[in-house]
## 1
Amino acid sequence: MTFAFGDGDLTDPDRWLREQEERTARLTAEAGRAQHELAATQVTATSRDQSVSVTVNPSGVLLGVRFSPRATELTAAQLSARVMEAYGAACAEASQRMLEIMSGLVGDDSSAMAFLKSTLPPVEEETR
């Protein structure tokens, strides 16, 4: 008698168990690699006029803001707009990098990837 389970059969339960352990080890290693890549990822973007640069992590957490000497010539409203411009660009790039890293783990067409994409804000088209 043969019992089918998942993507294999149980005619050789020891082999099936080894295959599952190997699969689990492979997935664990891939998850660890993705976690390491995400932790190491930082994206810096600069406003078009080069007055502001911001750095974010893949989740969009602001890690740093740098102002060039050009920033001193801007009004508060202009400076705020430049910060938001650079922040938006950095977040968009960081989101793309996060999706690239995660696609290797969960697959491009998976429901997990669809969920990740659904949590990201829409990317605004750049106007110059």
## 2
Amino acid sequence: MECRPGCGACCIAPSIQTAMPGMPHGKAAGERCAHLDENDLCRLFGQLTRPRFCQEFSAQEYVCGSSKEEAMQLIALLEVQTC
């Protein structure tokens, strides 16, 4: 599956526990990452400073569903299940 351009659900719904530029404590689940631009694209994509969690994320239908809204719900559910 290809990422949906402008979705950004994977940069909002999950918590990220590792430090990143501008977010030394990571981010909470549901918090918008400071590195999402106005088009919901990651400004750190392809950079070494991108968190490992983000580097390892792969768009999959069971996580991303068929829309941004569904992705937000599915990723939030996974977040709760893995806490």
